[in-house]
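This protein record is not my work; I was only asked to verify it. Take the sequence as given and treat only the tokens as open to question. I have pasted the whole thing underneath without changing anything:
***
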Amino acid sequence: MVCFLLVGIVLVLPLVCCVAQAETVPKSTTEWGEIADGALSFIYSLAHLIGQGIVQLVHTILPSMSVPTDLVDPIGLLAILTIFLAIASIAKRLVWIVVIAGWVLILIRLALVIVQHYT
């Protein structure tokens, strides 16, 4: 869980810095293009590093197996997508817990109003 949080912070922090920096300068399409280019470059670099780490891990576990170098980037991008999906599923569960708790609290409040009204 902490790992997902750290990865989320690592992914979002540069984007927030880029957006905050962009708000101080007049916005034009070229500046937004530069921001998007920087964000995509960051994601690609992160995916490449993650892919290299996974390939090195596979090589450490299975030293006789050689993984083609052209699979490093797809492995990293799939790892980022997997992390994003895991975070999204956890967030979905949390939202359902909040919604259910909200309905329970509303029902308790209605029960209290009914009891107060008839006593």
